[in-house]
């Protein structure tokens, strides 16, 4: 399993649809300051369901939508699609390629899709939960995160271990059932 491509449209500085093709192995994104490198990483976190504006380096969630420039009007929605190569069947779904889409409008409403079929965020979380990718998975190590992990409280460290062991999904299901 590997990330195959990322398409961003109306997300942060990417006003026009832009697709990055990712090959197996290491991909480096290089460019001048402010050219949108970190926005690419933000797009991956966002499409996987990130709900915190701060984690996306914004003040409010709406800040992910292209805000306009001197020569270009603001847009009304942001859309990101992440395509995952599932040739090895690591994801429990009968497709060799899985695309996850998130769309958000200025009123704050988000839509999610798996292979172009509308779904809930929970469906995406469950699909990815044992795969090592997902919003709360530690696939994105930002500046200072390594330090934070080393100094984490025991309960936070516990969820890290639970996630690695693949039991986080079951705990979440239990918590959800108990709430009902
Ligand atoms: P550095 O090398 O300094 O880390 P970077 O390549 O990581 O830079 P980013 O932080 O990804 O750059 O991009 C910052 C740019 O994205 C800024 O120019 C900012 O104005 C622009 N940007 C962020 N959010 C939006 C938005 N909603 N609409 C338009 N542009 C945006
Ligand atoms: Mg950056």
TrEMBL record:
Location(s) in or outside the cell: Cytoplasm
Binding-site list for ATP: 32-39
Protein origin, superkingdom: Bacteria
UniProt note: domains: Contains large globular domains required for ATP hydrolysis at each terminus and a third globular domain forming a flexible hinge near the middle of the molecule. These domains are separated by coiled-coil structures.
Function description: Required for chromosome condensation and partitioning.
Subunit structure: Homodimer.
Family: Belongs to the SMC family.
UniProt name for this protein: Chromosome partition protein Smc
Naturally occurring in which organism (per UniProt): Winogradskya consettensis
Gene this chain is encoded by: smc
Section covered of the full-length record: 1 to 180 of 1193
